[in-house]
Amino acid sequence: MRRAAAVIGLLALLFAPMEPARAAGPFSNWTAVVVAGDFHAHSGGPTEAFDNARRDVSKALVELGFEKDAVQQFSVRPKRYPADSPGLSDARTIHDALRFKAQTARAGCLFYISSHGSPEGAILGEGMLRPHMLAAMLDDACPGRPSVVVISACFSGVFIPPLQKSDRLILTAARPDRASFGCGEDDKYPYFDDCFLSSAPGARDFAALGAGVQACVARREKETGAEPASEPQVWIGPALRPMLPLYAFNRSKSKTP
After folding, report:
1. Which of 76, 92, 110, 116 could join 148 in a cystine, given CB atoms 3.0 to 4.6 angstroms apart?
2. Does residue 178 have a pLDDT over 70?
3. What is the pTM assigned to this prediction?
4. What secondary structure letter does DSSP report for 16?
5. Which positions ≥6 away from 79 have C-beta within 8 Å?
């Protein structure tokens, strides 16, 4: 009887329906950090816009092919969002977290911040994330691998020159001398983040996503009368540009064996 039961059990395992395996995509061995750098509206009052962007951009990255566990979130008010379990938006904390994850997820890195900005950099909690500081952080944590950097903040074009590397793609919400829009107390997202989220489902890769965001922001600013135009920037390193077809977004959630 025992032998018969064992045989039946073995047969059940052999012929049981197999669970679909997740398709391995080009971002399956990447690490990502998504940061809300502030919680104040331009009026000085509180806003959820930056944390809404942090939460929903993280979800969008998973939809585009990033592993859920590889996307780390950071907030100025982490205890306010227990469902997301973000870390504290502090430069050292973010640097350490990115470097730790990048030791095992060695294929590439993504950095995304949504915050206020100035010609000196982007607000990060009580301090300022300056362009050369971010460049040093990424060079240390993610050397010798492709990276994507997205800066959603006023004047964020100032980040492009210090961050330029041949294997890097950079998207910014504005020119170096322009403000961006949509960080009021009642805004769900800043304009740039809203356009990033709405453009992502139809984009084939980050270059196409950047172009889609540019068109979306221009349209949104015209509709609302926001001026002067922020003119989001896209910069693609020469070594990464011909490789972009290899980094197409993978929306296939599973495949049958």
Report:
1. 110
2. yes
3. 0.89
4. S
5. none
Where do we find the tokens 């992502």?
Answer: 200
Give the three-class secondary structure for 239: coil
Q: Which amino acid is at 238?
A: P
Buried/exposed code over 6-42 (b: 16+ C-beta within 10 A; e: otherwise) = eeeeeeeeeeeeeeeeeeebbbebbbbbbbbbbbbbe
Q: Are 212 and 203 in contact (CB under 8 A)?
A: yes
Q: In what order do the strands lie in the sheet with 30-36?
A: 87-88, 71-75, 30-36, 108-114, 147-152, 168-172, 233-236
Q: Which two tokens stand for residue 194?
A: 């809203």
The encoded tokens of residue 126 equal: 């009580």
Q: Which residues are within 8 A (CB) of 30 and not within 5 positions of it... i.e. 6 or more apart?
A: 66, 67, 70, 105, 107, 108, 109, 110
Other CB atoms within 10 Å distance of the CB of residue 77: 16
Query: For residue 92, is pLDDT > 90?
Result: yes
Question: How far apart are the C-alpha atoms of 78 and 228, rounded to whole Å?
Answer: 34
Is 205's pLDDT higher than 70? yes
pLDDT at 8 over 50: no
